[in-house]
């Protein structure tokens, strides 16, 4: 089976609300592989499905090359928590390079050499014919050749003061909170990072408005551990929670259409950066009290 992340998200939501019978478990286990590609799958979703017997694995590729690599793990291996990574085979390494990205020695851009047999004609975007994918990875441990996709070079947020922030690990940690469906991390051409949160309606309604908002703020505070000092999100000042009837626009693969989202919620985003809300920003690193909740957030619910 090979599907986009949104299909696995829907399957996980269904299984999470239904008693899982022996027959269902057998069906899940009968899939040799359940490949996911096109966009990253939330790790908690993949972990949940794997715990139910579905052998979810990541695969990576693009139109210009076809599939390049998979995670290549099984449920019986000790490293099965690395299903969300890729492990390129030795032969592929003759045709690709994980190239340090700018001055960040922990982050690498994948470059496809011009002599890769499956590289599309005229796909090269460097003078030597190589194809810089703009896809960024980190190696799980030095020399392991196990790589985790973390975002794209054009996802990097170039902030007003010249610093760059990678929004992907921040977003991933925020979305690990079960009541959060999706989020848009913002900061391009701004002095501060902010976030627009879309809630999972069914799960959010299990909580009171105050508890609901508190869980969102706590998720953002946890995500700040993955941000550089200049990329920390001030809580609650730079957090906007969408009303329950509003959603972030996504592609069929489940990824946010950033430009469209910025246009739809332009007024809300500008409000976040209005001096009224951000002129005296203080960053919350630790647990907050209910008194710190924004009244305008509570009134939405």
Structure notes:
- The chain is of the alpha/beta class and 301 residues long.
- It folds into 2 domains: 152 residues, ANL, N-terminal domain (Rossmann fold, 3-Layer(aba) Sandwich); 144 residues, ANL, C-terminal domain (GMP Synthetase, Chain A, domain 3, 2-Layer Sandwich), CATH 3.30.300.
- It is 27% helix and 22% strand.
- The protein contains 10 helices and 13 strands.
- Strand 2, helix 3 and strand 3 form a beta-alpha-beta unit.
- Helix 1 packs across helix 3 and helix 4 packs antiparallel against helix 6.
- The longest helix is centred in the last third of the chain and has 15 residues.
- The radius of gyration is 21 Å and the shape is globular.
In short:
The chain has 301 residues and is of the alpha/beta class.
From the structure above, extract its key features.
about 300 residues; GMP Synthetase, Chain A, domain 3; 2 domains; four-stranded mixed sheet; 10 helices
Q: What is the tally of helical segments?
A: 10
Number of strands: 13
CATH class of the largest domain: Alpha Beta
Could you state the order of secondary-structure elements as H and E? EHHEHEEEEEEEEHEEHHEHHHH
How much β-strand is present in the residues? Answer: 15-25%
Question: How would the blueprint of this fold be written?
Answer:
Blueprint: E1 2-3, H1 5-17, H2 22-30, E2 34-36, H3 43-51, E3 56-62, E4 66-70, E5 96-101, E6 104-112, E7 131-139, E8 147-152, E9 157-158, E10 164-165, H4 168-174, E11 180-186, E12 194-199, H5 201-204, H6 209-223, E13 239-241, H7 258-264, H8 266-272, H9 275-278, H10 295-300
Parallel strand pairs: 1-2, 2-3, 12-13
Antiparallel strand pairs: 3-4, 5-6, 6-7, 7-8, 9-10, 11-12
Domain AMP-dependent synthetase/ligase: 3-71
Organism: Circinella minor
Protein name: AMP-dependent synthetase/ligase domain-containing protein
């Amino acid at each position: 089976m090979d599907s986009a992340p949104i299909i696995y998200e829907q399957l996980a939501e269904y299984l999470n609300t239904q008693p899982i019978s022996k027959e269902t478990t057998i069906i899940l286990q009968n899939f040799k592989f359940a490949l996911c590609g096109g966009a990253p799958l939330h790790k908690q979703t993949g972990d949940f499905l794997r715990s139910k017997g579905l052998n979810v694995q990541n695969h990576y590729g693009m139109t210009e090359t076809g599939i390049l690599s998979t995670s290549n793990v099984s449920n019986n291996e000790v490293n099965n928590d690395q299903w969300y990574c890729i492990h390129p085979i030795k032969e592929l390494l003759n045709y690709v390079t994980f190239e340090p990205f700018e001055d960040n020695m922990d982050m690498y851009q994948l470059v496809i050499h011009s002599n890769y047999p499956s590289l599309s004609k005229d796909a090269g975007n460097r003078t030597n014919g190589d194809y810089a994918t703009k896809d960024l990875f980190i190696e799980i441990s030095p020399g392991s050749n196990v790589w985790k996709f973390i975002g794209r070079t054009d996802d990097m947020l170039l902030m007003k003061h010249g610093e760059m922030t990678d929004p992907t690990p921040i977003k991933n940690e925020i979305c690990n909170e079960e009541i959060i469906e999706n989020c848009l991390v913002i900061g391009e051409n701004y002095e501060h990072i902010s976030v627009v949160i879309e809630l999972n309606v069914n799960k959010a309604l299990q909580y009171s408005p105050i508890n609901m908002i508190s869980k969102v703020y706590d998720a953002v505070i946890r995500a700040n551990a993955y941000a550089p000092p200049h990329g920390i999100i001030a809580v609650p000042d730079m957090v906007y929670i969408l009303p329950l009837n509003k959603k972030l626009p996504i592609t069929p693969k489940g990824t946010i259409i950033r430009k469209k989202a910025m246009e739809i919620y332009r007024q809300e985003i500008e409000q976040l950066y209005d001096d009224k809300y951000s002129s005296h920003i203080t960053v919350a690193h630790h647990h907050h009290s209910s008194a710190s909740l924004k009244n305008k957030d509570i009134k939405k619910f």
